[in-house]
Amino acid sequence: MYVFFIVLIIIASFLIILTVLAQNPKSGMAANFGASNQVMGVRQTADFLEKLTWGLAVAIVVLSLAATMAMPRADISRSNDELQRAIENQTDGIQNFQLQTPGATTEEAPAAETPATPAPAQEAAPAK
Questions:
Q1: Nearest Cα to 5, choosing from 83, 53, 54, 65?
Q2: What is the pLDDT along the chain (128 residues), one digit of tens a residue?
Q3: Rounded to whole angstroms, what are the CA distances from 79 to 31, 76, 82, 89, 99?
Q4: What number of other Cβ atoms are within 10 A of residue 10's Cβ?
Q5: Which of 8, 61, 55 is nearest to 47 (CA)?
Q6: Virtual CA dihedral for 54, 58, 60, 64, nearest 10 degrees?
Q7: Burial of 36 (0-12, 13-18, 19+ CB in 10 A)
Q8: CA 76, 81, 85, 87 torsion-angle sign
């Protein structure tokens, strides 16, 4: 069932490419549809192509969701295992990485010395 949905998605993708290319009447494939423009009219052809484009876009989204739900469980678990290994590899790389600034030393620079403020002098008591 999964393969069936994938095939439908590919077919819808090719059809949406063709309808988008056919929407420009000055160039592209719409120039070849001159006879159909005379039968249906240019406005009706443009409306039909626009509705077909939107319909195919919605179909691709719905088929993608259906293909995801129809995906075999073995593929999902294998994909999850590969994703978990990739995350572990990335976190190991981040933990081993040390940020070093070029030209900086690991020793701390001495703090600038501030002049010591003298202790306040005690005033002598007047003699009696």
A1: 65
A2: 889 999 999 999 999 999 988 886 554 455 555 555 455 556 677 788 889 999 999 999 999 999 989 887 777 777 788 888 888 888 776 666 655 445 555 555 555 555 556 666 666 656 65
A3: 46, 5, 5, 15, 33
A4: 12
A5: 55
A6: 160
A7: middle
A8: positive
Q: What type of residue is 56?
A: L
Structure tokens at 80: 């999850």
- Which residue do the tokens 């005379």 mark? 38
Residue with tokens 């056919």: 22
What token pair was written down for 87? 């995350």
